[in-house]
Amino acid sequence: MTAPHETPQQAARRLATPAIRDGFRPEALHTYADGAGSPLYWRIRLKHPQTGEKWIRPMRLNGEGFALGEPDFPHGKPLYRLKAVTDRLEEPVTVVEGEWAADALARIGVLATTSGAADSAGKADWQPLAGRRARIWPDNDEAGSRYGTEVAATLKQLGCKVSVVDVPALGLPPKGDAVDWLSAHPNATEAEASALPCIEVPESHDDGAT
Questions:
Q1: At residue 3, does pLDDT exceed 60?
Q2: What are phi and psi of 167, to 5 degrees?
Q3: pLDDT for 141-172, tens place per residue?
Q4: d(Cα 103, Cα 81) in Å, to the nearest integer?
Q5: CA 116, CA 79: separation in Å to the nearest integer?
Q6: What sign results for the dihedral spanned by CA atoms 37, 78, 137, 157?
Q7: For a FRET experiment, which of 52, 155, 177, 191 has its CA 20 to 30 Å from that of 137?
Q8: Tens digit of pLDDT for each residue in 18-56?
Q9: Contact residues for 108 (Cβ-Cβ < 8 A; gap 6+)
C-alpha cells in the first residue's frame, strides 16, 4: 500500500470541505483500531452551530490515500476503543450510542465502547465482550431504547452479565445521553458515573433491556 501523503486530520478536513463551506464545524475525528491499537478506519464528525445538524462520515485508506467510506469487515465491524476493551479485561464495560459519548466517559476513566450510531448494533463484532460484565447506557429516546435492547440481546447470547442504566431516573432531556449527563455534572468521577442506577437484565430474558 502506498503511504498516504497527508495525515488523517488533513484528509478529514479535505473530505469535509463541502460541509465546512456550508457552515459545519469540525468536532472530532474518531479512530477505529484493532486490538493492538493499529488504525482500521476513521469517522469524521462535524456539527452545524446554528441548526445542530450533524455531519458524520466514515473515512478509510483505499491503497492510494484517504477516501470516504468504510473498509469491508466480513466478520462484523470493530468496536470503538477496542484496545482499551481488550487491555482492561477484568473491568466492566459501558456501551453507549456513538463515539462522542464513549470518548466523554473515557475522559473520566470509564471503560466505554460503542458500535456507532443507533442502527449499528447488528453490524458490529461484539465477541470481545463475551462473558464480561456490561452496562448499556442508551440515549433518552426511542432510537436509543431500540439500540439498548438490541445490544442487550446480543450480549446475553455471548454470556455477558448485562445491566441497563435507568435513563428516566437521570432527569435527562429528550435525546439526552452520557454527554448531557456529564455536562450537568462537570465534576463527576468514574466512581459516580459507574454508580448510576441500573436495571439488571434477567438471566432468563433474552430479548433485551425492557
A1: no
A2: -60, -45
A3: 999 999 999 999 999 999 999 999 999 999 99
A4: 9
A5: 8
A6: negative
A7: 52
A8: 999 999 999 999 999 999 999 999 999 999 999 999 999
A9: 182, 188, 189, 190, 193
Residue given cell 476503543 in the structure block: 81
Beta-carbon contacts of 47 under 8 Å, excluding residues fewer than 6 positions away, are: 24, 25, 27, 53, 54, 55
Residue 66 vs residues 36, 41, 73, 143: alpha-carbon distances, Å: 21, 10, 18, 31
45 vs 209: which has the higher pLDDT = 45
pTM of the model: 0.92
DSSP lists the bridge partners of residue 172 as none
Alpha helices (runs of H) in 57-177, residue ranges in sequence order: 82-87, 99-106, 142-157
| CB-based burial label for 127 (10 Å; 0-12, 13-18, 19+) | exposed
Q: Compute and round to an integer the Cα radius of gyration of the chain.
A: 17
State the fold for domain 82-200.
Dna Topoisomerase Vi A Subunit; Chain: A, domain 2 (3.40.1360)
Extract the C-alpha cell encoding 16. Answer: 469535509
Query: Locate cell 436495571: which residue?
Result: 199
The dihedral built from the CA positions of residue 189, 193, 115 and 139, taken in this order, carries a sign that is: negative
The amino acid occupying position 104 is A
Does residue 83 surpass a pLDDT of 80? yes
Tell me the pLDDT band of 203, cut-offs 50, 70 and 90: confident
Q: How far apart are the first and last CA of the chain?
A: 47
